[in-house]
Design a protein that fits this description.
Layout (H helix, E strand, L loop, with lengths): L5 H31 L6 H19 L33 H37 L1 H16 L2 H11 L7 H10 L3 H14 L3 H8 L4 H37 L10 H10 L2 H4 L2 H29 L1 H25 L1
Length: 331
């Protein structure tokens, strides 16, 4: 008959409890780390999310039910009515149907430019800085060259030289992305210079980790709020820049955007004829979407800016203390 020592059983139980406690502590620390990267839900963040999500859903869903935006009718410049919610253009085309398709086109350009500009800024701002030496010097010089080139005049020149039939949505998006990444790359370079000298990054290098794992696991998570802020800003800037280009007649020729709506409204003398329903809705969509993204960006800035971050932590503690006091009072 085998005799089991009670002290051995107690030690085993203690080891199991300690392991489980350590696992829970690690999981709690990981959740807390990711939660600290999310902005606090505030009234302005809620308003921004409602505006952004609402306009995105409008651009995705509304074109499926709005009818043909190119259909010409013999009812030019008809004010808003039950048949045409936002009236018609000079050639009788439904403004609401055009607005739905134009919103989707502007969102596509904004998202494409945001992704491309963020990727370019991450490559030139993070990779070169991590490797240092000639790579850092070369990437930094390249970023500085693009930084001093005036963006809008360069976009106008490039768009003017591209033939109209070749000036599609992707061409305009590529031109806007090429001219809008340098400033973000400089900010990422400064942050990466600070992060690559941290102890945990040095420990990962000494442990023989691959460079892509050091960047992806140790450096990139700390830059996610900054990258998100830069993406939001790039989307806002791209939509505004595309609207400006289209208003000048240099926009995408094979797609409808909010800028092209304003261009055709201006060419059709909508302002002088008092056809407010032709030019106010696209301008209002641009303004509301820009305001929504700006409010979201302000909330992300609370995570990036140390002063705002401290205020955010103080506000969280104050709210937690307030909830505890209410719970004690209710008990």
């Amino acid at each position: 008959m085998t005799t089991v020592d009670p002290s051995t059983e107690t030690a085993t139980d203690q080891d199991t409890i300690a392991t489980a406690s350590a696992a829970r502590g690690s999981a709690r620390k990981t959740r807390s780390r990711w939660r600290s990267m999310l902005p606090t839900m505030t009234p302005w963040l809620a308003v921004g999310l409602v505006l952004v999500i609402g306009i995105i859903l409008f651009g995705i869903v509304a074109p499926l039910f709005a009818g043909d935006p190119a259909a010409i009718r013999n009812i030019g410049l008809t004010p808003p009515s039950a048949a045409h919610i936002l009236g018609t253009t000079q050639t009788g085309q439904d403004v609401f149907a055009q607005l739905t398709v134009a919103t989707r086109g502007s969102l596509e350009i904004g998202i494409i430019v945001g992704i491309l500009a963020t990727l370019l800024s991450a490559v030139f701002g993070i990779l070169g800085t991590y490797f240092g030496g000639y790579a850092d010097e070369g990437f930094s010089l390249f970023s500085n060259v693009f930084l001093v080139i005036p963006g809008l005049p360069l976009v106008i020149v490039i768009s003017g030289f591209v033939p109209r039939e070749a000036r599609g949505l992707w061409t305009i998006a590529l031109v806007l992305a090429i001219t809008s990444w340098a400033g973000s790359a400089r900010v990422l370079r400064a942050q990466t210079l600070s992060l690559r000298s941290r102890d945990y990054v040095a420990a990962a290098k000494v442990a023989g980790e691959k460079f892509w794992r050091v960047i992806g696991v140790e450096i990139l998570p700390n830059l996610l709020p900054l990258l998100a802020s830069q993406f939001v800003f790039a989307v806002i800037a791209a939509i505004l820049a595309e609207a400006g280009l289209s208003f000048l007649g240099l926009g995408a020729s094979n797609s409808s955007t909010l800028g092209t709506m304003l261009f055709y409204a201006q060419n059709g003398f909508a302002l002088s004829l008092g056809a407010w329903w032709w030019f106010i809705p696209p301008g209002l969509i641009i303004a509301m979407f820009g305001m929504g993204l700006a409010l979201v960006n302000f909330s992300i800035d609370e995570i990036i800016n140390p002063k705002l971050k401290n205020a955010r932590m103080y506000r969280k503690r104050a709210n937690r203390a307030r909830r505890l006091e209410r719970g004690k009072a209710a008990a």
